[in-house]
Amino acid sequence: MPTDTAQNYLEKIQNSHVYDVAKVTPLDLQINLSKRIKNNVLLKREDMQPVFSFKIRGAYNKMASLSPEALAKGVIAASAGNHAQGVALSAQKLKCRAVIVMPTTTPQIKIDAVKSRGAEVVLFGDSYSDAYAHSLELEKKEGLTFVHPYDDPDVIAGQGTIAMEILKAHPEPIDAIFCCVGGGGLLAGIAAYIKAVRPEIKVIGVEAKDAEAMTLSLKKGERVALDQVGLFADGAAVKQVGEHTFALCQQYVDEMIIVDNDAICAAIKDVFEDTRSILEPAGGLAVAGLKAYAARENLQDKTLVAVASGANMNFDRLRFIAERAEIGEKREAVLAVTIPEKPGAFKSFCRLLGGRNITEFNYRYSDPQNAHIFVGVAVSDPSESAKLVSALQQKGLPTLDLSDNEVAKLHLRHLVGGHAPQAENEKVFRFEFPETPGALMKFLDTMGHDWNISLFHYRNHGADFGRVLVGMQVPPNELTEFSDFLSKLGYPYWDETENPAYKLFLG
Prior knowledge:
The structure is a single chain. By secondary structure, the chain is α/β, with parallel strands linked by helices. It has helices at about 5-15, 30-35, 55-65, 70-75, 80-95, 110-115, 130-140, 155-170, 185-195, 215-220, 245-250, 260-275, 280-295, 320-330, 345-350, 380-395, 405-415, 440-445, 480-490, 500-505; strands at about 25-30, 40-45, 75-80, 100, 120-125, 145, 175-180, 200-210, 255-260, 305-310, 330-340, 360-365, 370-380, 400, 425-435, 450-460, 465-475, 495. Helices cover about 40% and strands about 20% of the residues. The strands form three sheets. It has an eight-stranded antiparallel β-sheet, sandwiched between helices. A six-stranded mixed β-sheet has the order 1-2-10-7-8-9, with helices on both faces. Strands 5-4-3-6 form a four-stranded parallel β-sheet, with helices on both faces.
């Protein structure tokens, strides 16, 4: 069992070599977030490192401590993410060979990023575990030195330099520092330094709820191996924490916080609004944990520091993050509402929503008596959601709050629809609504006719206009009035009634 103490690590951290390649990153005040949660929130900007992650610190500190003979033979690592880039850049700086073993499932963009630093990439297996096992075989076969992503004293000390910079940048009182946790190297290094120098400062680790290896290990008093981990925060998706990191966290970490993916998405948005930078999911973990802790403890006017650990974001995740951020911040209520299936009921329902911004609307005719509507509504906080649900129910409209329903948020919102053979004389049009309050009510008021709305789909995507698909049952003898309505409305529109996709799935 490792026996290193905070004092041992204090010396290691103070004598580290990280600044040959890493930079001292800013500790930035998050003005908007601080104002909203009524605390002084500081962000340690490790997303601004040359490889957009803190991992460069530990990797270089380990490699710079190797003997000339070991460097001459080269190093090897197993990683599909930020550690790979840290090792590759360090090898480039130290002019030594670097072999990075990555799973065959690694995105090409990450493979190219590692190769661009001059490292050799070996693709092996379908998972990190496969790549790790193969890297150990190559280490022995080729006489290379393995650079562990977290469970190595030199790596831990390299990450600990972040704590040293935080205290130099902010010598005034700090109430708590929050760190994301994967294998535990970042948390262990920061905790060891802080408890050696400023033990009154709380050090709190943050994990995703589907990758809580450190939380469970600390509760049990021994390292726990998870059967599987969620991959949304892939930079912190580790099944078992390290021996060194666990021992240090047992001694020096005050608490662990677990957050869900919606909270991570909300944190990424918070940082973007203050910095215009986009963190990767693991990079947003600390901010999400900070917010959860501040809310739980009802903190005000405290100084809280979060480490933004990385910004190697996969671009294709941005849509999911944007969609879930409002729910994570509890600023969107997702509701299922039942209204009478009769002309005018839809307009009456919209009036009950008042001036609230509708973020999404899904409806398809399916029953001659009742209409089931899937709607998203912008709210200021969860209490407003509860009031809205109560107000709708008092008007005789059965309402179910789906804001915490994963099936609804992930799938149903995209699947509301289907064929409606009873929707006779249906005309389907695609519109562009201006993204302004009242655009929907203008549509309904201008319609001024008892045509039954049989299909309605809308989702706010942050553009300056909303794309809306509407089905209306218009008898053949009223097509002239319908044409007049379209002209009077003034919104761009396209007739999709003969669209083959509509006929195949909705008609």
